[in-house]
């Protein structure tokens, strides 16, 4: 519980004891609800700040990986754990995606999760989709980085594609 919520709780108790009229505790309760809402909104609206330039780069895992942007993260209900650099991920050529016949999804697979975090953009995914199906039976290793700045989500990935 943060300090402002604790302070409002204390004020609510004191006001209830000192002036037990109905209006004062109601106002304090409304203020408490507002602070809870504000606190929750701040948690949902976090920004990833990197300490130096080295932290901003996603290192390429090897010659057989290629660089891709990631899109669609704003629709994935991402949590704090999904942000940052993840070296344990999969690029999956989705065979039955109703929006894109050549969709390549990026999945976070660490912590026992198998969470879709974004997609390779249309136009950049056709050759990659076909290659992943033909060469890797539909999925291959990837590493990605997702960050948030000024209420916008950005993402990049390296996908094992033998250097397409």
TrEMBL record:
InterPro entries per record: HIRAN (IPR014905)
Keyword entries, A-Z: Hydrolase, Membrane, Metal-binding, Transmembrane, Transmembrane helix
MF terms (GO), sorted A to Z: hydrolase activity, acting on acid anhydrides, in phosphorus-containing anhydrides; nucleic acid binding; zinc ion binding
Hydrolase found in the keyword field: yes
Ranges that cross the membrane: 6-37
The UniProt record lists the keyword Electron transport: no
Domain (HIRAN): residue spans on this chain: 66-140
Record-given protein name: HIRAN domain-containing protein
Organism this protein belongs to: Phocaeicola plebeius
Lineage: Bacteria, Pseudomonadati, Bacteroidota, Bacteroidia, Bacteroidales
């Amino acid at each position: 519980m943060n300090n402002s919520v604790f302070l409002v709780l204390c004020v609510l108790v004191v006001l209830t004891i000192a002036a037990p009229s109905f209006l004062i505790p109601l106002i304090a309760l409304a203020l408490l609800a507002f602070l809870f809402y504000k606190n929750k909104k701040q948690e949902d609206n976090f920004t990833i700040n990197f300490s130096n330039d080295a932290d901003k780069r996603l290192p390429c895992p090897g010659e057989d990986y290629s660089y891709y942007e990631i899109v669609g993260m704003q629709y994935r209900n991402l949590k704090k754990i999904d942000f940052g650099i993840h070296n344990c991920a999969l690029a999956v050529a989705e065979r039955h995606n109703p929006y894109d016949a050549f969709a390549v999804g990026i999945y976070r697979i660490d912590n026992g999760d198998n969470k879709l975090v974004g997609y390779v953009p249309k136009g950049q995914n056709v050759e990659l989709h076909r290659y992943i199906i033909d060469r890797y039976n539909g999925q291959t290793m990837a590493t990605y980085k997702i960050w948030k700045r000024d209420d916008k989500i950005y993402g990049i990935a390296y996908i094992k594609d033998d250097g397409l």
